[in-house]
């Protein structure tokens, strides 16, 4: 059996002069999208957010392949990595990490998805990690009338095994007109489907540009996605459900007050090396 949320039409937010996003918070989907905490479908044209901490979850930036620009990511490990269009970067914050992401100077507008993916409570006190998936490592699949890009599928990220303590899947799918594509969802998984272009049906529900629907599968099921326009493109972000409390303090989210207090103390000691 699969539970579906109501279709959600996101709000459009702006932050300063260089950042705009459609926001998809877990609360809008009755928390069915567990382990997804939130997704921002963003456009960013310049530095917007100063260095900031995260803890308790993975902060994942997926840059669309047709994005005009990419990002430079700096973190408290002292690493500097470029996220090119079509690539992904995962900051597994765990007990805490400090990072900053800015568009490549002079490169134009970067657009993609900022994904906050929860971590199991037992792993939230682990050391943090940072992993890059260059565009060449994103898996491509295709079938009759559809093409997909799978940036993460399981617990490995960018060829690093067990980078994540719980499996996730991040997939972008393009569909031709009059195409139906069934996506297999394992038992015990939840997630979100966002219409990036055109219009699609998900079971009997209709999504138009920007709209999204959440789901939770009690048993393994194939989710039918069918185009209702000439072409369509969707993002599907999912993972094994964690079914645990979420206690938030700004950019820190953990499963207990004690772990949140520990994270607050830890990130206070972090900085990004010059």
Write a short abstract of this structure:
With 274 residues, the protein is mainly beta. The protein is built from 1 helix and 24 strands.
Descriptive overview:
This protein is mainly β and 274 residues long. It has a single domain (2-267), classed as Jelly Rolls (Sandwich), CATH 2.60.120. The chain is 4% helix and 51% strand. The chain has one helix at 257-267, and strands at 2-4, 11-15, 19-25, 36-44, 52-54, 57-63, 71-75, 80-83, 88-92, 97-103, 110-118, 129-133, 139-143, 146-154, 168-175, 180-185, 189-197, 200-202, 205-207, 212-217, 221-227, 232-240, 247-249, 252-254. The chain has a 7-stranded antiparallel beta sheet, with no helix packed on it. A 7-stranded antiparallel beta sheet has the order 2-3-4-11-6-9-12, with no helix packed on it. Strands 5-10-7-8 form a 4-stranded antiparallel beta sheet, with no helix packed on it. Strand 7 (71-75) and strand 8 form a beta hairpin. The longest helix is centred in the last third of the chain and has 11 residues, at 257-267. The model has no long low-confidence stretch (mean pLDDT 97).
Which terms summarize this structure?
mainly beta, Jelly Rolls, 7-stranded antiparallel sheet, 1 helix, 4% helix, globular
Instruction: Give the overall shape, derived from the CA principal axes.
Output: globular
Report the top-level CATH class.
Answer: Mainly Beta
Described by strand count, sense and barrel closure, the largest sheet is: 7 strands, antiparallel
Strand content: over 45%
Report the mean per-residue pLDDT as an integer. 97
Question: Number of helical runs?
Answer: 1
Number of strands: 24
Q: Please trace the helix and strand order, writing H or E for each element.
A: EEEEEEEEEEEEEEEEEEEEEEEEH
Question: Structural class from helices and strands?
Answer: mainly beta
CATH superfamily: Jelly Rolls
**According to CATH, what is the topology?**
Jelly Rolls
Strand order of the largest sheet: 1-20-17-22-15-14-13
Radius of gyration: 18 Å
Architecture per CATH nomenclature, i.e. the level-2 architecture = Sandwich
């Amino acid at each position: 059996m699969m539970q579906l949320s109501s279709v959600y039409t996101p709000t459009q937010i702006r932050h300063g002069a260089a950042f705009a996003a459609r926001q998809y918070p877990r609360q809008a989907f009755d928390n069915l999208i567990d382990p997804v905490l939130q997704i921002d479908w963003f456009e960013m044209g310049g530095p917007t957010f100063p260095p900031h901490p995260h803890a308790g979850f993975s902060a994942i930036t997926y840059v669309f392949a047709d994005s005009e620009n990419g990002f430079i990511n700096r973190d408290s490990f002292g690493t500097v990595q470029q996220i090119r269009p079509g690539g992904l970067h995962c900051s597994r914050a765990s007990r805490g990490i400090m990072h900053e992401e800015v568009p490549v100077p002079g490169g134009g507008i970067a657009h993609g998805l900022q994904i906050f993916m929860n971590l199991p409570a037992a792993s939230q006190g682990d050391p943090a990690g940072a992993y890059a998936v260059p565009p060449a490592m994103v898996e491509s699949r295709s079938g009759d009338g559809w093409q997909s890009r799978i940036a993460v599928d399981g617990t490995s990220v960018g060829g690093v095994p067990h980078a994540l303590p719980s499996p996730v899947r991040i997939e972008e799918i393009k569909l031709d007109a009059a195409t139906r594509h069934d996506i297999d969802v394992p038992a015990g998984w939840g997630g979100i489907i966002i219409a990036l272009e055109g219009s699609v049906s998900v079971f009997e529900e209709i999504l138009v540009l920007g709209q999204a629907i959440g789901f939770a599968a009690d048993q393994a099921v194939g989710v039918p996605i069918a185009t209702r326009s000439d072409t369509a493109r969707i993002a599907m972000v999912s993972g094994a459900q964690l079914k645990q409390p979420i206690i938030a303090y700004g950019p820190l989210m953990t499963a207990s007050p004690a772990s949140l207090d520990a994270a607050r103390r830890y990130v206070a000691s972090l900085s990004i090396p010059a």
